[in-house]
Amino acid sequence: MPIEVDLDNRIFHLCSRNASYVMTVTREGYLAHLYWGKRLTASSSLLRVLAPISRPFSPTSEHNSLWSLDLLPQEYPGFGHGDMRAPAYQVLLSDGTTVVDPRYRGYRIMAGKPALSALPHIRASSSEDAESLEMELEDVYSRLHIILSYTVLNKLDVVVRSVKFVNHSANPMRLLRALSVTVDFPEQPWEIISLPGAWGRERWVQRTSLGQGMVSQESRRGTSSHQANPFWAMVNPSTTEESGKVFAFNLVYSGNFLAFSDLDQYGQVRSGMGINPFDFSWHLEPEETFQTPEAVLVYSDQGLDHMSRTFHDLYREHLYQGPWKQRDRPILINNWEATYFSFTEEKLLDIALTASGLGIELFVLDDGWFGNRNNDRQALGDYDVNRDKLPHGLGALAEKVNQQGLDFGLWVEPEMVSPDSELYRRHPDWCLHVSGRSSSWGRNQLVLDLSRLDVQNWIIETLSKVFRRANISYVKWDMNRSLTETGSSALPRERQQETAHRYVLGLYHILDELTHLFPHVLFEGCSGGGGRFDPGILYYMPQIWTSDTTDAAERAKIQYGTSLVYPPVAMTAHVSQIPNHQVGRITPLAARHWIAMSANFGYELDLADLTSEEQIRVANYVRFYKSTLRKLVQWGEFSRLQDPFNTNGVSWMFSDREQNEMVVVYLCLKTESNPNRTWIKLRHLDSRSRYRVRGCTLKPEEEGAWEAIAGDELMNVGLGVWPRQDYFTQSWHLVREKGGEGGGF
Ligand code: DGJ
């Protein structure tokens, strides 16, 4: 069984195929963390790790001068009672004090995994070899109960954690900090990998060493943000893509978060993740509960590659839901960079017609279709179609697009309101604001107060009407600013600091309703590109616009960083115009295609501007994506082969799950004169099989012959490429020879 309990030693051992996570209840009733790492056969002798060492200035128990909470590795540490390190939680009691001392009360084991009612969560049934454990703690003095939940997924080396607080006292109390997880590690050295960024430059890989003290990433913007991502990995300095240990955390949450590692004076590390305690508190009346979001913990002793594959499989199999969980994602054309706000029905239909001739499957109408929204200063909130631009309405446009053989998709930005809108004039108090203070604007707009049920219901009703007005099969859900003046006129004073979290809960409620009302619709998340790229959003919207930057070279880095955690099927990428609208760079059509085809593929330009020779090439790329690449990118396995942050190129590989067919993509970011040849070494092939390999030019006249190369040679010598100009690309298609598996020649 995934969870073994040794009642004699009070040890709880969560085992997956290659990993163990072990805790114990100490004699004093504390829940101590014993181990997380490579699978152990037995755990009964692990209590050794708790053997005390005398340490000055570590507060001790009055009965034992060697025993100190400051030195005890713990599952969910508090503060104020001897542990001087960063706590997992803090609570303000009705007497004004913050000292609590919860002790173990009992445990419960369940098959499968319980769902969370108002938060996105990992799903697993008992048949999927998942088991869950609840550990209940109680602070006798305050009657605060803390229930720690753990689920272990046997096949994936994943532990999912979350926490529930219950106020069983007769008085209110206030949570000041309520992280989803902390883990204590007994030794160093560590390096931290995180994914910070900026608008247009999201999720760049950052690797830093950990010295004494705290390192952290956090968001205070109300969303998970462009600037930080709720991903945190601790690795050894020697860890690479292919080898070494990784302990990774990812929060299933879309709002303010904190991720940190705190290296203490003795070389022990506490890492944690959860809702950002900054400007957060939660009021708990008697018998009220507070549930934290889930944190996903992934262990790998085979480097970052294995960590990423675990996250990818987890999210595709245990986070995604509904018909789009396994359905191929369509190739789309989006009109944004082609027209921005100025379009007519005729222009849109022209774009759709050219797209349909090239094999594209979905037409997406972006911003500017409603109210008097002719620029970004007005009309958010007024979702009546703009009859000047679309005189026959949305339904008629969708019908004409459908007649051209394309599905129809629509952009919305429902979390926002323009001060210049009917909605704002009718309901000025519906936006986040602090009474008596002026509100900050972002992209000329205000944020609707999604903590309010009336606002949530209005969004659900309004969008339902819009989605019923036309044959809509896809929705791009945008969100274009950070939260400020985060207060709600609907909440009492003691609950104002709940607004940011209630906003996220409100968003999840809306998304839950709409995705159930419109299950056939493919929802794509967007927040000025990738400003809210997290598992919370992916639970409802299985793909996300990765970045507003569409330049191939910039995208290579963004998609590489994003792939650390999120599968290629979660990312969308478009071929756009040159010079590129965000960075002015000119890259060849091939480079733009291979990077866009490395995700859910689409276009965002006026295809009619391409020459007829370019259009023929576009049709070839579309055909190849449909026939060969789509299934590998969306449902296969992904490997990073060359790192664009530390080399002058990028390379990655898509393969099917049986390793019978692969496509390898390479892009040179910056060449030098008279360069050496680069050798791209493949991974995960069968060393004794032979593979037929051919460069994919996708120009029938230049297509080379197939060449047979042994798997071990491809992995140890590699594929050679001579990158003689910037943005030069090369790609290869590999097919394993039949009968060659395991010793074919
Ligand atoms: C920001 C998005 O990221 C863009 O793709 C586009 O939809 C604009 N908003 C529209 O306003």
Could you write a compact summary of the structure shown?
The chain has 745 residues and is an alpha+beta fold.
Q: Any overview of this molecule?
A:
The chain has 745 residues and is of the alpha+beta class. The protein has 12 helices and 38 strands. Strands 6, 7, 8, 9, 11, 12, 14, 15, 19 and 20 form a 10-stranded antiparallel β-sheet that branches. An 8-stranded parallel beta barrel has the order 21-22-23-26-27-28-29-30, surrounded by 5 helices. A hairpin with a 3-residue loop joins strand 2 and strand 3. Bound molecules: (2R,3S,4R,5S)-2-(hydroxymethyl)piperidine-3,4,5-triol. (2R,3S,4R,5S)-2-(hydroxymethyl)piperidine-3,4,5-triol (DGJ) binds at residues 336, 366-367, 411, 478, 480, 526, 528-529, 545, 548.
Comma- or semicolon-separated keywords:
about 750 residues, alpha+beta, 8-stranded parallel β-barrel, 12 helices, 38 strands, globular, binds (2R,3S,4R,5S)-2-(hydroxymethyl)piperidine-3,4,5-triol
